[in-house]
Amino acid sequence: MGLHKLRLAAAVPVTFSSRLFLKPFTNTLTLGLFSRHLQPRNKPLLVRAFSASAAVQDIPATQTSDSSVAARPLWKAAIDFKWIRDNKEAVEINIRNRNSNANLEAVLQLYENMVNLQKEVERLREERNNVAKKMKGKLEPSERERLVEEGKNLKESLVTLEEDLVKLKDELQHVAQSIPNMTHPDVPVGGEDSSAIRQEVGSPREFSFPIKDHLQLGKDLDLIDFDSAAEVSGSKFFYLKNEAVLLEMALLNWTLSQVMKKGYTPLTTPEIVRSSIVEKCGFQPRGDNTQVYSIDGTDQCLIGTAEIPVGGIHMDSILLESALPLKYIAFSHCFRTEAGAAGAATKGLYRVHQFSKAEMFVICQPEDSESFHQELIQIEEDLFTSLGLHFKTLDMATADLGAPAYRKFDIEAWMPGLGRFGEITKVEDWESVTAHLNRLRRVLRKGKRIFQPLSLSTL
Amino acid sequence: MGLHKLRLAAAVPVTFSSRLFLKPFTNTLTLGLFSRHLQPRNKPLLVRAFSASAAVQDIPATQTSDSSVAARPLWKAAIDFKWIRDNKEAVEINIRNRNSNANLEAVLQLYENMVNLQKEVERLREERNNVAKKMKGKLEPSERERLVEEGKNLKESLVTLEEDLVKLKDELQHVAQSIPNMTHPDVPVGGEDSSAIRQEVGSPREFSFPIKDHLQLGKDLDLIDFDSAAEVSGSKFFYLKNEAVLLEMALLNWTLSQVMKKGYTPLTTPEIVRSSIVEKCGFQPRGDNTQVYSIDGTDQCLIGTAEIPVGGIHMDSILLESALPLKYIAFSHCFRTEAGAAGAATKGLYRVHQFSKAEMFVICQPEDSESFHQELIQIEEDLFTSLGLHFKTLDMATADLGAPAYRKFDIEAWMPGLGRFGEISSASNCTDYQSRRLGIRYRPSEPPQTGPKKGKANLPATKFVHTLNATACAVPRMMVCLLENYQQEDGSVVIPEPLRPFMGGIELIKPKHK
Question: Where, in this chain's numbering, is L-serine bound (chain B)?
């Protein structure tokens, strides 16, 4: 029985959880538009970092919703263990700075064991091949018998070792997934309060009269209906009416046209996707407090962001260098359970189960990701400045980055009805992590394979 | 134990099934944009046609997915049994014309039984009240003992009869739901081929070059990606790219602005709703071959049309007459499993699991529904004429109406890439069929001259509203029409004039050089 060929896969074990309820209260309302945190996965995954073969098949889906160690994953992350081993001090410091609970020692140990076991397996295979070769020639019956016996023993040992190897690789992947992305050198080290202000635009408007919050305005101007939606659908759903409908369409139309001018390709996406895609993007559709709605009777889920179906377009692909960069502005409805989000930061339109969003997504060469990160944040700042908003752009500190982000800029706008700033967008540079997840590669002119980084921006 | 107060409810036992695979093949591709057909429900429902009280509570949700007769429904339709009984010949003819499998005899029989049982129950209650009254006075001990005994017996009989009554009402509702709406006298009787042409606009464009279908155009112009979507989501999903995104937004923007001019209120809606709302609108979320996606671990579903959440806005309400008519143009994404739809009519954008749609919905007084039906179809015809489409409006024959529709106009547009007409919109007058299930009523502003029974003291009795729905724009089907009809020999596609301002002035979708 040969080693199962498995699709390169991955799941950075992250969940959509609101940063809000994990952080101490400040004057800034962090809405956790799309935060990811690490959580050890209980499902073992197999890593295929050493196989040169690109063609793989899916492991039969035996994933169950309970965390059984025996459950085989559908796919694996192409994690660069050699690099981790060779840079272990930096990786350790990074893990600490990010408050991650990744266990680097365990990873390195398992990796060593795995490498050794792999060598042993290969050695046994070679011996068995030799035996098979010898048996092709003319032999004495006793010699033949001896070889048959030897072949059988080798085969039995191999089967055992190969099973062990599979388990070891699963375990290694399981532990290794917790390891967060490396961090940009300019990112401030520390918690939320250490985040640096990259820019502040405008100032809070001075009102000469008592002001209303958006809920009151929505009622008074007959723009938003939460009450009917609570009957029809449940809490955190709403209807938009009258000018609010036109406003939503205007926002999306205008945003699309502005961003298209910068060379982004407009896109609409499926809002139902296979759950494996959701996982590859780093979310746990079936975990407790999952943010993801699943469809009954299928392996499908609703997307929480267009990032998921857009990332999926190019999965398991090799792109030509000349095709890069790929720049998309993707529009979709987004669905989130908001499980676990409670308290004041759920009022009205702040936290809803369904909303429209335009998302920018960039696939580029590694050396370009930093400049695209700057391009994305610049586009956002320009958009919000044009709309006359008062906002600040934050360079998020290490403990506030999600696992995939190499660097993250959040924009928080002033919301007078609430008397605080609230997050309206973020821009993440995912560097190579998502590239691992979706197995994107770029073939350089020189023919060397390198993983591409991704830059993401939400609007 | 009193009669359980139950919420006005119902579920017409219908499913979203495509008319296509139920009808013989003709030169018209009936895409069954939104058809409903009858199917007996296995779950009994309780009817509340006789209770004057409007305030009710939900029956605890004990619905299970297997059809157990003991399962209590969450709500009931306010079906007018007296009217059915008094007009039974007309109802029977209607059932036959519509090829419905409703069993009128069974309904009438159950109704009789129910009425009689109800009388018996009321009689026993009155007796028990009398006994209780007598016991308030001064009595001989033996007399008191006798009355106590009598009271006990009456109570036991009542409990039994009341349980029977509940079961009977459930059974009655279960059978009665199959009964379709009555039919407009002008509707042709018969199958699909009997549908009458109300109007035909334009003529098929003559092409001087070999034409492509929308799939080919979508590939060549880099507008539609089905392949990636098949990997990411499955078949019948797609990405729109480049000008197609602008085209979708232009279609919706333009449609919205045109319809708003006619006094329709724009609306966006939740796309996740409780399954009971879906049922009240006449769909079976949990039947075999259901068109409805359900959400795991909840009682929620994805909507297949904005008609559902819009109908839900005013459910269990009494509107003022002065508030009517309510006219909405609602925009939403729609999700359909398309279970059971197979064959040639599933190609490309014809039949997809997710699409954008603008839907018109009207709530009005009964006497106005006919004129609103005309208004809706006129709006649709004007929209499609403005876009330069060649289409015909059909007055659908009786066998082709869904259960809720009193009358239905379908518009089928010429799709040259397929060489046939394909349904792009549908306008239905559902009269009071949905409102009896959703519980939408209105209170007339003045008492009528001849005195029918009054509701609350000095207030005129409430009546059920009429509801209508009509597709203003189903984006994928429109895209098929526009791409295929407006293609040029050089592979480009012309944008119809009304849409250009909504697309930043683009006049042409040109092939891109790679």
Answer: 305-307, 359, 471
Bond into A309 cis (ω within 30): no
Beta-bridge partners for A319:
A442
Query: For A137, phi and psi rounded to 5 degrees?
Result: -85, -175
Q: Lowest mean pLDDT: which of A115-124, A197-206, B37-46?
A: B37-46
C-alpha count within 13 angstroms, C-beta hemisphere, residue A249? 26
Spatial distance between the Cα atoms of B385 and B461, rounded to a whole number of angstroms? 43
Residue in B232, B264, B332, B334 to test binding to A, most A beta-carbons within 10 Å = B232
| Cβ-Cβ contacts under 8 Å for A120 (sequence gap 6 or more) | A161
pLDDT tens readout for residues A55-87: 333 333 333 333 344 456 667 788 899 999 999
Helix (H) or strand (E) holding B231: helix B227-232
What are the strands, taking DSSP E only, across B263-325? 265-268, 272-274, 300-302, 317-320
pLDDT band at B73 (very low <50, low <70, confident <90, very high): low
Q: Does A251 touch chain B (CB under 8 A)?
A: no
State pLDDT tens for residues B358-371: 999 999 999 999 99
- Residues sharing a CB contact under 8 Å with residue A250, sequence separation 6 or more, in sequence order: none
ipTM: 0.81
The type of residue at B117 is L
Phi-psi region of A65 (alpha: psi -120 to 50; beta: other; left: phi over 0): alpha
Strands (E), B242-316: 265-268, 272-274, 300-302
Q: Which of B426, B435, B436, B441 is catalytic?
A: B426
pLDDT of B74 reads 63
Which domains are delineated in chain A?
3-53+186-458 (3.30.930.10), 69-176 (1.10.287.40)
**Would an 8 Å CB–CB cutoff place A297 in contact with chain B?**
yes
For residues B262 and B265, give the distance between their C-alpha atoms in angstroms, rounded to a whole number.
9
Tokens of A387: 């709309």
Q: State pLDDT tens for residues B451-505.
A: 555 555 678 899 999 999 999 999 999 999 999 999 999 999 999 999 999 998 8
